[in-house]
Specification:
191 residues, alpha+beta, nine-stranded antiparallel β-sheet, 9 strands
Length: 191
């Protein structure tokens, strides 16, 4: 298979069937304006030929990194399948319509949490956050919880995708796809 998106679809389907927890979990690596890296786990919420989408608070550290350096790397590690996929690319915002639709699909408490959290900011006491959650709950009692302006999606537009498959005696298989315009070139890497 020489289409990396189709290959990802195939591997992702296998992970969804076999991986015991969060097959859509991916490490997201960013770097700030000084080049200082940071990595954390986020959840893949959509993907296709236009990229890989996740959602977050746009006032968070990762969002701050992406505002000054719109480059990111993703890593899926499916331990049960002994596979990983690395993706590198440029990052853009998902549309407001996409962000609204995904936000509306979240559970009510998750939507309220988006209003209550100053993600990545220092928190004096857990009770402060819990009180803010209760305030949001009261504020939106009996009505739909709208998406906050500071919350939305990001799309990693891949320029390189590497598929790693475990091999006996550490003789792993590594396939690297690199985007050239609208097409992909494929090569292999030594393990």
């Amino acid at each position: 298979m020489t289409d990396p998106i189709a290959l990802f679809d195939s591997w992702f389907a296998e992970a969804q069937a076999c991986e015991p927890n969060d097959p859509n979990a991916m490490a997201l690596a960013t770097a700030d304006a000084r080049g200082r890296p940071s990595v954390r786990m986020v959840l893949l919420k959509g993907h296709g030929t236009d990229g890989f989408v996740f959602y977050t608070n746009r006032d968070s550290r990762k969002a701050g990194d992406l505002a000054v350096n719109a480059q990111a790397a993703l890593l899926f590690h499916w331990k049960s399948l002994r596979r990983q996929v690395r993706i590198e690319g440029t990052v853009t915002h998902a549309t407001d319509a996409e962000s609204d639709a995904y936000f509306a699909s979240r559970g009510r408490d998750s939507r309220l949490g988006a209003w209550a959290s100053d993600q990545s900011r220092p928190l004096d006491l857990r009770a402060t956050f819990e009180a803010r959650f209760e305030e949001a709950k009261a504020r939106f009692e009996g009505i739909d919880v709208p998406r906050p302006a500071h919350w939305g999606g990001y799309r990693v537009n891949p320029i390189a995708i590497e598929f790693w498959q475990d091999g006996a005696h550490r003789l792993h298989e590594r396939r690297l796809f690199v985007r050239a315009g609208d097409a992909w070139t494929e090569g292999q890497l030594y393990p």
